[in-house]
């Protein structure tokens, strides 16, 4: 692994490395709550009248052409090992023709010598690439200048503002002031040089919050629901205080299941571009997410496990992991009689509990 330059800021780098190590080495999956995709099943078409290899999974998102509706979701940055991970992920995204987001860039904005750990354009000149800042930082001195710097730092096509109130509430030295953020987000959106995406980090967006964010003018919402990685559980592993650790563990099952958040937000906002993420692990779940209203589907943990689980040829390992997801999605489209994503959005999807088809 590449090492940090001399005199790098140890505390923030250590926090970033802690997050990576905990996600990879500990069981931090949500408990007592699932994504909700298991509650749906597609009506199987036994005679699809299609050629499997001609299924078209391409789409356009934020003006960029994608070969499949997939996003390698925001994960990391701020350490030397994170830079290597980002490079492998970006190179895989370039090869596959899919999108990618980087982890929160606060570390590099406060310590510019860390900017290189987020920069991937040299291996991924053509991908849809998203910068990333914590929305709560708008209450702590951040604004248009920091947003522009984050975008310019990585030559991004869009900017993610992530919402993580639960994580901030349970982590050591978290940011507690979340007042007035709708207004600050609205002002930033109006001035931003690139489209703004607002996402949760794994506890879900409600339809009410989504509607208010849409009124602020955000270009895209990422529902980032519950059922995958629990960031309160990640922070529990970082807590030195036994009482605070216990409190963080209590929220391991907190949040809105990904499928439910997606379904309810799409009903409220029929035309706003949506990303579905949170516990999505295979191409069948991707297909269900598309049918429930997603335009793009994000996956983080499978990509991180692929790149860090390989001793060599990490880029190829990531490519193979996502090729499997893409082929699963293609077969799901084929077996629902869907020649493309537009038709997949209309495929018959039924509820397990009632067997009734979704409207």
From TrEMBL:
It catalyses: isopentenyl diphosphate = dimethylallyl diphosphate. Belongs to the IPP isomerase type 2 family. Homooctamer. Dimer of tetramers. It is found in: Cytoplasm. FMN binds at residues 73-76, 104, 132, 199, 229, 279-281, 300-301. Its cofactor is NADPH; Mg(2+); FMN. CDD domains: IDI-2_FMN (cd02811). Keywords: Cytoplasm, Flavoprotein, FMN, Isomerase, Isoprene biosynthesis, Magnesium, Metal-binding, NADP. It comes from the Bacteria. NCBIfam families: IPP_isom_2. Residues 17-105, 184-350 form the FMN-dependent dehydrogenase domain. Mg(2+) binds at residue 168. GO terms for molecular function: isopentenyl-diphosphate delta-isomerase activity. This is Isopentenyl-diphosphate delta-isomerase. Its EC number is 5.3.3.2. Pfam families: FMN_dh. Substrate binds at residues 15-16, 104-106, 167. Involved in the biosynthesis of isoprenoids. Catalyzes the 1,3-allylic rearrangement of the homoallylic substrate isopentenyl (IPP) to its allylic isomer, dimethylallyl diphosphate (DMAPP).
């Amino acid at each position: 692994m590449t090492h940090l330059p001399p005199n790098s800021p140890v505390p923030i780098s250590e926090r970033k490395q802690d997050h990576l190590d905990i996600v990879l080495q500990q069981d931090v999956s949500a408990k007592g709550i699932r994504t909700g995709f298991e509650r749906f099943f597609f009506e199987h078409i036994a005679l699809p009248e299609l050629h499997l290899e001609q299924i078209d999974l391409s789409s356009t998102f934020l003006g960029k052409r994608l070969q499949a509706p997939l996003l390698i979701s925001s994960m990391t940055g701020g350490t030397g090992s994170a830079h290597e991970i980002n490079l492998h992920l970006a190179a895989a995204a370039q090869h596959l023709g899919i999108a990618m987001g980087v982890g929160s860039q606060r570390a590099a904005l406060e310590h510019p010598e860390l900017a290189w750990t987020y920069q991937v354009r040299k291996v991924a000149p053509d991908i849809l690439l998203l910068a990333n800042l914590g929305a709560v930082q708008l209450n702590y001195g951040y604004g248009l200048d920091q947003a522009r710097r984050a975008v310019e730092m990585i030559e991004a096509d869009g900017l993610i503002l992530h919402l993580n109130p639960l994580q901030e509430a349970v982590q050591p030295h978290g940011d507690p002031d979340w007042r007035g953020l709708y207004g600050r987000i609205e002002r930033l959106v109006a001035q931003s040089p690139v489209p703004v995406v607002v996402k949760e980090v794994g506890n879900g967006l409600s339809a009410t919050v989504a509607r208010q964010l849409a009124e602020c003018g955000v270009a895209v919402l990422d529902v980032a629901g519950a059922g995958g990685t629990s960031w309160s559980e990640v922070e529990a592993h970082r807590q030195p205080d036994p009482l605070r650790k216990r409190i963080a563990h209590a929220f391991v099952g907190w949040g809105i299941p990904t499928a439910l958040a997606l379904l309810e937000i799409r009903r409220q906002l029929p035309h706003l571009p949506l990303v579905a993420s949170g516990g999505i692990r295979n191409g069948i779940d991707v297909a269900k997410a598309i049918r429930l209203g997603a335009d793009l589907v994000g996956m983080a943990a499978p990509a991180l496990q692929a790149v860090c689980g390989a001793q060599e040829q990490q880029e190829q390992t990531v490519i193979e992991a996502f090729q499997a997801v893409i082929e699963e999605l293609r077969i799901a489209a084929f077996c629902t009689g869907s020649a493309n994503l537009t038709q997949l959005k209309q495929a018959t999807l039924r509820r397990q509990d009632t067997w009734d088809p979704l409207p």
